[in-house]
């Protein structure tokens, strides 16, 4: 194979594939050079002027840039399986994904991580896993599985694993928590990703000193700059919810800061959004529109990412590098016309998705529901806390309501009931509370996507529909449902660990749009997402008040209040 | 230890060493920031404002930059042992050396490589070895040992080894030589250094495609640029003989080329020159004087080098990085006032050098000399080739002299005899020829430094003095000698493998200066170095005519001619 590569480069032997007449971006020199690209065994042999080959692709002066690298993503957040997700990434020029299976690990632990690796293997992409470092995420909820320091030590050097993923537990790092220290020591010769929103000063120094080498939580240029100064690589994030790119890149353009220590990522991005604009392709396009030199934007998306993660042979169109290439009809618009992975054209192209084995479609395991399952607990101080949803915001407000007023407010639909039911080990743990601002008029809505423990979250105007909604979720083994009068108005099955759809993305997206419309018809406020809003109501790290399967949690007091 | 680092960074625990009031070069952002540096267990814990510590060093606003990295050097060419060499490097700010023990390997093979690693361990420096890939260098001479593909496979993953060193045999790479392919495959997951003077076009593409990742032979900016385009990192060389920096860096300054893929090296630099101006320190200073931004020059000397060789935790003054730091009273003049290695001050400071065991001081093993040892072979075509030394040049010219004229020319000192005697395995192989342009009037000069096989090279006006010179070399077990009338006018012992001195550098340097003066008094031309010139006369790769222990070699015809 080495001989073939050398002889192809020398022109002594025809290339397997010859890309002719290309304007090639050289990410080492930030130049665009005109020439041909000779490929052998999926590796770039040489760039220059090459003759005949069994397969010649004349790109007629289009641009050829290195395949993009998505440096941090949670595939589960796309709501489709890894093979479907990767096929979509490829269409938009991403040939390497670095992913943290944090959500699936909360459901199924190491088995879930292996599932994500196995299924992604159906698609020709480099799929690297960063091991989830914080499963469970908190002690205030019951999730499906735990990732222990021992698991990290066992997995850390396995093929496909690059290191340890976002160390969200930065208080644990700064407090020298024994388990956290153990994980960091296991991963010290690999890459340890950070997750430290607004961490600064000595805390940031300590976080970096511990060996954490990246962060994707910067929301401003100033925050990114301090992190780069501290030696952290900054992964500029542009996802479905968190959109940090504009603030950071505008600052880079204004200051002329060297971008070598920066790359792009999406973190959480929904398949519908990816299908619309792509992931890293969108980051590059936005950066260029903000005034970043195209060469630097593409370099961030390729060579910088490869350097940050030590990915040898990735990130450049150069001899000896893997032939991962994106052909563009327009450089500034990032108009992708072809994508090559290891010298094979993957876009345009189609992939057959393998059916997911039933083994991974049976994660909903709840205790039998009882007549009083959705009954509110006894009042405290004569009443109950209320969780207020705010429009277009992820934070909530809290208030208090007297016990005597509850039934009236429920009947008038000013309040709904909300329940979180542990769904992994049939423990029967159930938290029941009161919710305002959701808007549902008559019926129930339920989901099995509930960050980070992914228990069942059900909201309803009456116990009967809530009961029926949970039954429906159980039957589907996960998903979204909308119920009225014990009838299913609409449902989206998410059978794969209760997080991911098993069907084709187009159908999934249109079904979801229809279900969303029906939910709004049922009264759900126009200014919130009927399902994603619920998914975050059980995350006891977000202000101000949340509910888990253990009860209503006051995030500011950091304790259960009901 | 991790806990201590974190708590030191947080200021909860005093640093082992606190460097106060520094102007710190941040190589990530290319800024100079004012602050303190807190160090714990030899690692930088934090940069900022820190309080009391058991050891505080107030540098009063001096600059602190990362320790320098010499990316490619042959320690043997300094003519002192690795511990003496490293102590000298430290004084000039080099805290990491990447070295190729090519010379010693030609004498003693793997044992020699291990010797260099062991002896360097006496000095607090990071001493990384790149395994010599071309031992022996040619088939036209007999050296002491061979480094086989098997040896590379065995050693490649040992501690202290980074990869495979300069693949000088680029025809072997391009020709897919089996042994070369085997070495490259063994080293493919490590770093493979190149050595490809003027390699260009498809040959360069093929060389890079083979997996070679660096080159230090560029002599012009254009050559460096083409290599960087091909994905090779360019190690800008400034040694005792080869001085490539000016041409390359002037081009970088003029073009504004990104320097990320460039670092500095010395290749071959003599201890006398190092002692005068240092190694990498000199490269930085020269680059700044040519107009390169100081921040970029220091970055080339540290972070870039660490990135090119994948040296995690080296190359920056940042939390979690090894506390390798240079304190400078002047940034542009690179005026070194202190050097720290792993948080220990090594300059100002002294190191005791361990005596070298006799085991490594007995490498001269020659067959008994005979009366006719220095007799010229029978004439061919009625005469002999003559090797002409040219002043201030390393290349030679050739001519032919009739057999009848030889004795007259020898008596008139227009010619000397030159002999190369195999000195490793007492095979008795001896090449005898004629030399002009050396200038020696009466006597003999001999050396055991003879690239790359390091046989004994002796030049003389009469057989008796040549005989005596070799005997003296044998007695000293290697070195330089100057003989007249069977008396030793001067001698420099190089007992360590016949290549390196065992004494203190100051004495060595003054002794060498005196011996050089005596050699000039004995007639050796003012415009050549009496010893280094001889050292290159046995290197059958340099034009136009050479002599080895196998005879007189015509480099242009690529064959022995006498």
Protein model, in words:
2 copies of one chain form a homodimer. Chain A has 562 residues and is α/β, with parallel strands linked by helices. The longest helix of chain A is centred in the N-terminal third of the chain and has 19 residues, at 102-120. Chain A is elongated. Chains A and B meet through helix 1, strand 3, helix 6, helix 7 and helix 8 of A and helix 1, strand 3, helix 6, helix 7 and helix 8 of B.
Oligomerization state:
homodimer
Report the span from N to C terminus of chain A.
67 Å
- Global morphology of chain A: elongated
- Chains forming the largest contact: A-B, 55 and 56 residues
Gyration radius of chain A, to the nearest Å?
Answer: 25 Å
Q: Which tags fit this structure?
A:
16 helices, 8-stranded mixed sheet, alpha/beta, 562 residues, 27 strands, elongated, homodimer
Summary, kept brief:
Two copies of one chain form a homodimer. Chain A is an alpha/beta fold. Helices cover 29% and strands 27% of the residues of chain A.
Any chance you could write out the topology, listing elements then pairs?
2 copies of one chain form a homodimer.
Chain A: H1 2-10, E1 17-26, E2 31-40, E3 43-48, E4 56-58, E5 63-66, E6 68-73, H2 82-91, E7 94-99, H3 102-120, E8 126-131, H4 149-155, E9 161-167, H5 170-174, H6 178-186, E10 191-194, H7 201-209, E11 214-215, H8 221-229, E12 233-237, H9 245-255, E13 262-265, H10 271-277, H11 280-289, H12 294-308, E14 325-330, E15 335-341, E16 344-347, E17 383-389, E18 396-402, H13 406-411, E19 416-421, E20 430-436, E21 444-447, E22 456-460, H14 463-476, E23 479-484, E24 487-493, H15 505-521, H16 532-535, E25 545-548, E26 551-554, E27 559-560
Parallel strand pairs in A: 1-4, 1-5, 6-7, 7-8, 8-9, 9-10, 11-12, 12-13, 17-20
Antiparallel strand pairs in A: 1-2, 2-3, 5-14, 14-15, 15-16, 17-18, 19-20, 19-22, 21-22, 21-23, 23-24, 25-26, 26-27
Helix pairs in contact in A: 2-3, 4-6, 11-12
